[in-house]
Amino acid sequence: MPDDTLIHDPNGGIERLLEIMRRLRDPKSGCPWDIEQDFATIAPYTIEEAYEVADAIEREAWDELKGELGDLLFQSVFHAQMAAEKGLFDFDDVANQMSDKMVARHPHVFGTESRDKSAEQQTVDWETIKAAERATKAQGGALDGVAVGLPALLRAVKLQKRAARVGFDWPDATHVLDKIAEETAELVAEIGGDPDKVEEEFGDLLFVMANLGRHLKIDPEAALRRANAKFVRRFRGIEILLAAMGKRPEDSDLAEMDALWDAVKAAERSG
Fold first, then answer.
1. Which residues have C-beta within 8 Å of that of residue 116, sequence separation ≥ 6?
2. Of 114, 141, 142, 189, which one has the greatest count of Cβ atoms within 10 A?
């Protein structure tokens, strides 16, 4: 029988979690589901857990954040265990590489550089260090290293930032607004025609909208999450008003729900 002392130690910390993961993946006594997984099958869960962390922060659900961070940490532990089984690296290697990276990227904290500079200048320095790191990985192109698997909106912003660092950027938001008008006209011209072309023009418009957010110093992903939350809140307001009338949305029509939407919006603004 294996020694379960660490498994059941409530203060076992990261070593307890690593041991749990090792036991779950044990080919003879582990969990069949965990044993069957690989990097590709776990990756979607990793992405999902990262979004759940962001969601808890967005809602300021601090009582939930600890658990969501734990779920995300477990994803790193899961990937590291699979890597260890293949002889690639283990969790300590992950932690050590991250520590080395943070020390190298913060010479103003852990080295001899002065801390007497703005956060903006530190951001510039950070990007310079990252560019040097990419050069050592034979990533010569300005856009190399921007992960393909990122959410499309986030990747658009990262690609635009990279291009801007080498001078490929509009000088201000006014020029981006002009481009939005141009892309909107091109989309309108394609509507009703080839669906593939409509999708292409729609994508172009979204890409430029992401660029506008960057120029306005707005995170497009955060702005869209906020818009989503507002839509949910207001639509629930419609449902509440309809329920008070003994109705459901499917019993209503667009004109009535649109009027209730305006009422909910007005109540929000006055409250």
1. none
2. 142
Instruction: List the CATH number of the domain containing 34.
Output: 1.10.287.1080
Q: What single-letter DSSP state applies at residue 247? A: -
Whose CA is closest to 104, among 144, 136, 66?
136
Distance between alpha carbon 256 and the CA centroid of its chain, in Å? 37
Distance separating alpha carbons of residues 198 and 58, to the nearest angstrom: 33
Per-residue pLDDT at 130 exceeds 80: no
Domain residues for 237? 222-270
Q: What is the SS3 string spanning 38-98?
A: CHHHHHHHHHHHHHHHHHHHHCCCHHHHHHHHHHHHHHHHHHHHHHHHCCCCCHHHHHHHH
User: Total domain count for the chain?
Assistant: 2
Domain closes at, from 47, 77, 105: 105
Q: Is residue 150 part of a domain?
A: no
Task: Tell how many helices (H) and how many strands (E) occur in the chain.
Answer: 12, 0
Instruction: State the residue for tokens 């409509």.
Output: 198
155-158: Cβ within 8 A, 24+ apart:
156/206, 156/207, 156/210, 156/211, 156/220, 157/210, 157/211, 157/213, 157/214, 157/219, 157/220, 157/221
State the pLDDT at residue 221: 87
Is residue 85's pLDDT more than 90? yes
Question: What is the spatial distance between Cα 57 and Cα 51, in angstroms, rounded to a whole number?
Answer: 10
Stated pTM of the model: 0.65
Map residue 18 onto helix, strand or coil. Answer: helix
